[in-house]
Hints:
It contains eight helices and twelve strands. The protein is rod-shaped and about 105 Å long. It is α/β, with parallel strands linked by helices. Helix content is 37%, strand content 24%. The strands form two sheets. The protein has a nine-stranded mixed beta sheet with strand order 6-5-4-7-8-9-10-11-12. The protein has a three-stranded mixed beta sheet with strand order 1-3-2, covered by helices on one side.
Amino acid sequence: MTASGVFFLATLAYGVVIGDHIPAIVGGYKDARDAAANAAGFRIASIALSGERHVSREEILSAAAVTGTTSLLFFDVDEARNRLKTNPWIADATLLKLYPDRLQIGIKEREAFALWQQAGRVSVIAGDGTVLEPFVNPRLIRLPLVVGAGAASRAKEILTLLDRYPDLRDQVRAWVLIAERRWNLRLRNGLDIRLPESEVEQALVTLAGLDKDKKLISRDVMAIDLRLADRVTVRLSEAAAAQRAEALKDKKPAKKGGSA
């Protein structure tokens, strides 16, 4: 090759890079390659999907980059699988090419596990803490609500534990993570149950026992503090506190003595 030819090719390559033409060239090559394969009988004529519930057919095909001109021959299933898994609903995917013209796509979706509230916004999360949707579809409004920074990744831990105490869990309106260290349970009647940072199950055993013997949860109290292993502290409502103070005052013995 002459020096002028080398110079021309180098100039052409430089112009392609500087002009950001590489994606267009690669795209054109892929289009031509697929067109040739399709003409040979390898056009994707049938696509079978399975496992989709929350993700639509259109979203799956778009994520997998399957279009009307995609050829089965050059379709990269590994690349498509990785693209599908960028959708937060899709935990995994399997793709199978059946020559000459059929494609099977099976997806495994994450389950909506709870609602997560942080900074005034509520999202739908999976059991592993993955945010599935940054909003709440009406069909998911009855999911458990966890609140606070870090609560998404720890939601399964506390909700699974509360499954062992169904009577208590049914009364919980929100699970609130405090300082990313420990949980408060906010009940539907407004009562706060303050759990310890460790030995949470033992605290729940204590609470269940007190509720069984003394109906503590249904009493006129505002908070039950279980953070200390050797004691349970109960904060009465204002009305209950006033009533208790009045009862104690009535029980005070009369002063002895007097004027002679």
